[in-house]
């Protein structure tokens, strides 16, 4: 579009950001949090680091030319938890008595708290110590992303009150630095729908009228402080909503319009298509509406057809969830046509969602291959892309011709690169047959053969896979990576760590052992580093939850396995003991879900490539004498599309890929899988169709409630319901674990039940793990004794 043909509407296009990564370019937030939890710094020092990260984010956006910058997109742990604290939804067992919420109460909600631990007080406000020895809130995935949020928990007769002014505080903080921001709030309807009521007959959405006054108070305070716009996120708009939920949205935003008429609301949806919720969204009395045109480009025309003249449209045109460089010319082709023809309200352009889900800055990757680097964009680069788009729309493409041309060249080179396309992989895909995704015999037959080989007692004990990655392990890995520790010395160190773990498990009486995974950096990265088609970053950290950050691999090309990946370590560990040793693999769906996936072919095809590579590994483990192999699929549930109409197609290929990876072994080899923090009811039949001999699941935080799905379905195989919440520093005692196992025994046959933690123990400390697993073994023995007496 030339300067001569640009309209006034085009010149009014603004560039907005919806949210930025919180963690800092060098993981400064992680360091500060873990120092605080360890007692090495106080709350004031933690708050100082947090303030510095917020200031740096605002300064970076301002320098890049972002016109609309968010505030309150930062969190010390989780934005949903922040909302629970803001509205005072703090369960009674945390000991909060009103007033300002102590920082350690906040972290107890996030992480739990071990009885007898030292409580540090917060840096300002109330200093009452929270109740110690409490569990954390449940944790699950944020929609279909790899980010975890703390599930709000509502008590019978829940009362809400404004307990935190964080959104106002951070708006004023930005204002003091000279930045006028658009505060971000999680919308009340989405917030309630994400929560759980402890009243069995309760419905969180029934609490809407109770929580809305708190929101109105916060919005009123923001308006009084000078905010003219506020961004309210209601991602529930991309879900299957019933009319009651739509009525809740109409009631909510009607009230906001009446109560705070001078404050404009940008209602933000993301992660999918509004679909049958579009009419409702467009009818709400809000000044702006944001939609995700990356995940759902097809909704643009319906959006424009129903657009109001008095409403700003915010178009999410740059992918906030993946790391590929945007096709700027293609985006401009669409935007120019829209803007010239659109005669309703002003247009904003933005990322599709918060940039929380991508790494911060590609320029930190100084060792990355030049061709791959030219295909990528992290958060800073995505902001630059938006600024370029905005400049092109305001001044014409000629103003940014060089940048547009560079982007187009990079995209063309990626499409034709020999590093991306491997004909041998395509041939293997074409050779897949239905029989390759089926075990030879049914489970009942396999079970007898496996028991004859494994000779396990009732209520067999095991752990999920990893043991603590101690400072010594991390230092040795770092030294090896830098060349300061030779290959032979590093291997010797790892062998000693592995042998110690094996001997200790034998000593305390674990029935099926694991080797501890000391050689592994991450359950996806470790495998991706050994697979063709994967690439890795040095500084591409994204937040998983709290201070847990990951560097997702980048699947840029066709995936294959050049050589065995785990056989040597599994075989070594098995050689140390006569007890069965599990081989440990990450499943194909999780390898897909927890990576940045190429966007030039269907995800199902990429997943089949990974499944074939893992199938080779499973067969080789069996040949090496490993008779139990665990193929973890914690991400299978989270991969579900947000719309139920799309579930069946996804589940068909996801289950097929798991079975393809697992079905190349003999009937006597026991296949395990693991899933954590999932609601299983809706997909229990698909979990059954995976046909794993043993599945281990998270159940401790839910007090075995998640097991009910397996009971109602009459799950035919074996199940390990987790009895130890590994995401909390609390060490459960024998009585607590036994109580959970008794609840499991009420739901399942004794022969079905395994005894294990909720998840891997990599992030815990040995001083927590040792007593917890000793207690777990004792609990299993109590159940065996009870079974013998019956």
Fold and architecture overview:
This protein is an alpha/beta fold. It has two domains: 3-91 and 137-416, TIM Barrel (Alpha-Beta Barrel), CATH 3.20.20; 431-789, TIM Barrel, CATH 3.20.20.210. Helix 8 (208-224) runs parallel beside helix 9 (243-259) and helix 23 runs parallel beside helix 24 (647-662).
Classified by CATH, the class of the largest domain is Alpha Beta
Please state the oligomeric state of the protein chains shown.
single chain
Strand order of the largest sheet: 1-12-11-10-9-8-6-2
**Which consecutive residue ranges, at least 5 long each, have pLDDT under 50?**
1-7, 116-132
Q: Could you say which overall geometry the principal axes of the C-alpha atoms support?
A: globular
Q: Distance N terminus to C terminus?
A: 82 Å
Could you give a short account of the major beta sheet? Answer: 8 strands, parallel
How large is the radius of gyration?
27 Å
How many beta strands in the DSSP annotation? 21
Mean pLDDT: 92
């Amino acid at each position: 579009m030339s300067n001569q043909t640009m309209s006034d509407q085009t010149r009014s296009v603004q560039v907005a950001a919806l949210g930025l990564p919180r963690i800092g370019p060098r993981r400064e937030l992680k360091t500060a949090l873990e120092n605080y939890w360890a007692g090495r710094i106080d709350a004031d020092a933690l708050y100082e680091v947090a303030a510095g990260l917020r200031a740096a984010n605002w300064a970076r956006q301002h320098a890049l030319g972002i016109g609309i910058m968010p505030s309150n997109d930062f969190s010390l742990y989780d934005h949903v938890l922040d909302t629970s604290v803001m509205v005072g939804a703090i369960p009674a067992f945390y000991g909060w008595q009103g007033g300002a919420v102590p920082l350690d109460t906040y972290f107890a909600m996030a992480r739990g708290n071990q009885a007898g631990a030292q409580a540090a007080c917060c840096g300002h406000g109330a200093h009452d110590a929270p109740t110690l020895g409490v569990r954390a809130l449940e944790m699950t995935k944020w929609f279909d992303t790899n980010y975890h949020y703390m599930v709000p928990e509502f008590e019978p007769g829940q009362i809400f009150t404004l307990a935190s002014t964080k959104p106002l505080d951070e708006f004023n903080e930005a204002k003091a630095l000279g930045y006028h921001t658009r505060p971000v709030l999680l919308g009340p309807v989405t917030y309630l729908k994400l929560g759980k009521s402890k009243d069995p007959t309760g419905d969180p959405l029934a609490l809407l009228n109770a929580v809305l006054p708190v929101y109105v108070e916060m919005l009123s305070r923001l308006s009084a402080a000078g905010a003219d716009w506020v961004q309210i996120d209601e991602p529930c708009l991309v879900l299957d909503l019933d009319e009651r939920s739509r009525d809740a949205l109409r009631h909510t935003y009607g009230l906001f319009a009446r109560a705070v008429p001078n404050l404009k609301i940008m209602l933000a949806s993301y992660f999918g298509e509004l679909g049958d919720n579009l009419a409702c969204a467009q009818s709400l009395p809000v000044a702006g509406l944001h939609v995700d045109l990356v995940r759902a480009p097809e909704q643009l025309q319906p959006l424009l057809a129903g657009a109001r003249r008095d409403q700003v449209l915010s178009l999410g045109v740059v992918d906030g969830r993946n790391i590929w460089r945007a096709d700027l010319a293609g985006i401009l082709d669409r935007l120019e046509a829209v803007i010239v023809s659109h005669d309703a309200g002003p247009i904003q352009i933005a990322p599709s969602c918060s940039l929380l889900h991508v790494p911060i800055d590609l320029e930190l990757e100084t060792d990355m291959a030049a061709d791959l680097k030219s295909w990528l964009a992290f958060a800073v680069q995505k902001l630059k892309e938006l600024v370029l788009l905005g400049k092109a729309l305001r001044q014409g493409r000629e103003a940014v011709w060089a940048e547009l041309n560079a982007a187009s060249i990079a995209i063309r080179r990626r499409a034709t690169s020999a590093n991306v396309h491997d004909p041998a992989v395509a041939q293997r895909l074409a050779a897949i047959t239905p029989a390759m995704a089926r075990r030879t015999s049914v489970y009942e037959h396999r079970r007898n053969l496996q028991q004859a080989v494994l000779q396990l007692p009732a209520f067999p004990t095991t752990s999920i896979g990893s043991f603590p990655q101690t400072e010594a392990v991390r230092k040795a890995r770092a030294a090896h990576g830098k060349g300061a520790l030779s290959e032979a010395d590093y291997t010797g160190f790892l062998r000693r760590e592995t042998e110690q773990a094996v001997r200790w498990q034998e000593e305390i009486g674990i029935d099926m052992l694991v080797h501890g995974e000391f050689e592994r950096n991450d359950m996806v990265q470790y495998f991706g580093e050994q697979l063709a088609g994967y690439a890795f970053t040095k500084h591409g950290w994204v937040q998983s939850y709290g201070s847990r950050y990951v560097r997702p691999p980048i699947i840029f090309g066709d995936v294959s396995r050049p050589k065995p990946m785990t056989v040597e370590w599994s075989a070594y560990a098995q050689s140390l003991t006569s007890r069965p040793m599990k081989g440990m693999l990450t499943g194909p769906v999780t390898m897909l879900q927890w990576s940045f996936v190429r966007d030039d072919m269907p995800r199902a095809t990429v997943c089949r490539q990974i499944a074939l590579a893992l199938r080779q590994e499973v067969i080789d483990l069996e040949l090496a004498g490993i008779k139990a192999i665990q193929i973890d699929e914690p991400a299978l549930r989270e991969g579900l599309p947000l719309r139920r109409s799309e579930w069946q197609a996804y589940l068909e290929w996801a289950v097929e890929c798991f079975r393809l990876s697992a079905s190349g072994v003999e009937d006597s080899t026991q296949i395990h899988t693991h899933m954590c923090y999932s609601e299983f009811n809706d997909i229990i039949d698909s979990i059954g169709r995976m046909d794993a001999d043993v599945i281990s699941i998270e159940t401790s935080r839910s007090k075995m409630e998640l097991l009910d799905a397996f009971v109602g379905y009459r799950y035919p195989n074996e199940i390990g319901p987790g009895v130890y919440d590994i995401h909390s520093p609390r060490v459960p005692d024998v009585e607590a674990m036994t109580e959970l196992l008794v609840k499991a025994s009420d739901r399942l046959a004794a022969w079905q039940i395994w005894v294990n933690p909720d998840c891997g123990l990599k992030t815990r400390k040995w001083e927590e793990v040792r007593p917890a697993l000793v207690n777990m073994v004792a609990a299993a023995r109590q159940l065996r004794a009870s079974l013998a007496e019956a």
